[in-house]
Amino acid sequence: MSNPSGHTARQKLPVWMQRIDPAIATSFFCILLILLLGSFFAPNFLSPAYIVQQLKVGAFLGIAASGVMLVILLGHIDLSIPWVLTAGAMMGCAAAGFGPVGAALAVPAGVLVGAGFGLINGIGVAYLRIPAMIVTLSTNVVAQGLMVIYSGGFSPQDAAPASMRWLATGFLVPGLPNAILVWALVGVALVFLLTRTAYGRFIYAIGNRESAAYLSGVSTRRVVLFTFVLAGALSALAGTLLAGYASKAAQAMGDTYLLPSIAAVVLGGTSILGGKGSYIGTVAGVILITLLQSILSVMQMPEAGRQMTYGLVILGMLLLYGRDRKSA
Fold it and tell me: What are the sequence ranges of the domains in the chain?
């Protein structure tokens, strides 16, 4: 059942306010609240330098969350992020061992590895009709096993090449880290895809009801397949940037990105049921999660407590917004 009183109250608001997604508005309000609270714990919390640093750290999460958003819009889920991200980073660093050409192609090599794992996910979900949770979780385990075999069970000794370090920590524009620029480019590309192309319309249509999209002539299998490939590529791109930021790849470096990336997407108003969401909401969710990580770090909360916080955030947003379509 819908909430008539809530709907009527919303209709009384000005037109421009009715167009604002409540989840996005809530996210931006929480961002301001965290900034104000953080200023009490650390005087430099509101300084431009600190904010730019947080955006730089958030860029890695933002790129990974971009792929997660696309998959969730379809009504699916991608649990292969941790080790696809790690595999992209490790293989990108490994490519640097093949001389100057390998070093120059390190980032594309890492992204290609991620796209390959995404292809496996897409085939399993789109053509074999296996639930996305099972396929992506299996792919994550396979990627983990392959990387453990590659590294011999130890952290790889491959150092990130200069191209990866520059892309993550360099400055093409003075005062603006390249990682933020890469995230911005990814965001612009995805906004264009989602709002100006048939592919974007197909994603929303499949997320709302895949059978209806199929009957209307949409090649649903191809759209799902391509989306998982794109999500894998974006996870690997985040991994190559993270390796450049740390100057090397390490095992399990992507483990801490699974829950935060999903939480960022859900916080930004993307329905976990699919078919509803905008990229500006994901950006807000990423910034909120990044600032939340920062303030929890300042408060010296252990990693277990942080993961519990992300889980509670996802659960809370599901309770608030996850049932909208069913209750309408």
Answer: 56-255
